[in-house]
Write a structure and sequence with these properties.
- This protein has three helices and 17 strands.
- The protein is mainly β and 235 residues long.
- The protein is globular.
- 36% of the residues are buried.
Length: 235
């Protein structure tokens, strides 16, 4: 079964596909997250802030809150950004499942109320909104890095851009623009909304391509790229 785990692209979360044994569970997704990016994903700039060797001890879901118990390795080393990022990776991965809205953390079976040397407060369940600064302004949830797509391609996710508008561009294997469209999310300008669009594209040839999510600067009109997703385009 297919799900998503969240690595980092730059300093922000970026989803990647994973296949886990049926039935697809948050536990399976979290174990896949802890295993780290694949070589392909690493070559395309995906990293993780989660220390190698971190293990999932248990996960219990009650009333849409997942209590996730990780091994003590999880809080080893790293500054404030690294600590925030590794929390965000777990929260985004767990909340991809409809049954989970927020996460409560434990380390080696003990509840966490303050995380890391900077003392990040975790005395309450946290959700995606608590890590808004670590989400790109345009978060593409599908298609995912490495996916093979054909026209028209469905693109969905969430965004928090000025007046809820932004652009999605598809570049084909020849480096030419196969599509470049305006998209409007359900909300923006400080409030994250969702989007779900179907984009027809015209590729010169099949092969490696890229989906770019961006918005144009109000100051000089230049493109501000929020994320790039390598794909395989089928003509």
């Amino acid at each position: 079964m297919r799900t998503s785990v969240y690595f980092l692209h730059g300093e922000q979360v970026s989803p990647a596909p994973r296949t886990v044994a049926a039935p697809t569970t948050a536990a399976g997704a979290l174990r896949a997250l802890l295993a780290g990016p694949s070589k392909y994903e690493a070559r395309n700039g995906r990293t993780t802030a989660i220390p190698s060797g971190t293990a999932l001890r248990s996960i219990v879901v009650r009333r849409h809150v997942a209590t996730i118990d990780l091994s003590g390795r999880y809080d080893d080393g790293g500054g404030s950004l690294s600590m925030q990022a590794r929390l965000a990776q777990v929260v985004f991965t767990a909340t991809r499942f409809p049954s989970i809205e927020k996460v409560r953390f434990e380390l080696d079976g003990k509840p966490v109320t303050s995380f890391g040397g900077e003392g990040i407060v975790l005395n309450h369940p946290v959700g995606r909104a608590d890590f808004e600064d670590l989400a790109p302004q345009i978060l593409v949830e599908s298609p995912l890095i490495g996916d093979s797509v054909r026209t028209p391609v469905r693109v969905w996710g969430s965004a928090n851009t000025f007046e809820a508008t932004f652009k999605l561009k598809i570049t084909d294997a020849a480096g030419r623009t196969a599509a470049d469209v305006y998209v409007t999310a359900t909300s923006g300008t400080g409030t994250r909304g969702t989007f779900d669009v179907t984009i027809p594209y015209r590729a010169t040839r099949s092969g490696a391509g890229t989906l770019t999510a961006y918005w144009n600067s109000l100051e000089d009109g230049h493109a501000v790229v929020e994320d790039t997703i390598p794909l395989t385009l089928q003509r």
